[in-house]
Amino acid sequence: MGEMARYLRVREESRRHFAAAYPAVLSSFEVSLEAFTALAQQLRTGRDASGHTHVSLAPFYFILQRQTMAAFDSLSAGQAYVGWVTVRPGVESALIMGKWVDDAKNADVWANRFKNRKAYQDTYQGKALESRSLPRAPAIRSALSEINDLFVHPNPMYYYRHVELVDKEDGAVELKVNFFDETEDVNIGILSLLHLVITIQDSLAQMFAALFTGVSRTDVGLGSFEEKAGTWAHDLMAQSPVAKQILTTIGLWDTRATA
Question: CA–CA separation, 236 vs 244, rounded Å?
């Protein structure tokens, strides 16, 4: 069997194990997917006080939905690291949606980013990406920055994480690279990624309710998920500083709420 065939076989075995071991997680994710559908309907039919639609936000919204599903698939295959790299564009897309709701001119700045890079940087880089319209935008933008630092750029944690040194009997040292993550890392990824995405959904629900006339805030299940998974999140935080860092700075879990 070739290398790629063995890799794909292990991924498939990991998915089968995940489905058997995490039925409650799969159930929570299905609730999140239902929330995506409900919010998409509001985006499709909603009109603001001036009678205007905002369907130009839809591609960003669907990026978030698509990347979330792809990231969860990576988690189910035992590859939490890949999941974070995958979901990153979706997190940024939600922040851009907020900027477009702030001011329609921000869409022009985005479209002309290669023609006027300074204007783009002034509008979309760093804290400038924190919109007034999207609730929790500062926290979501901070989570995006943490994803970049810990999972996208090859910084020290990335450099060492998947490398293993094995001492051989003949005195040689074997350098191995692991393509799959430990169970603890997968668990941290599950709770952090799901909570981050559901928090973003809740922020979008609030933004849509404020933007569209006659639209009520959709319950995306954030409170229910926190109630069900809070103890698990708190237990993981207590196990290691790294777990606490990822769960709070990226997953946006509140340590007070899980204590």
Answer: 7
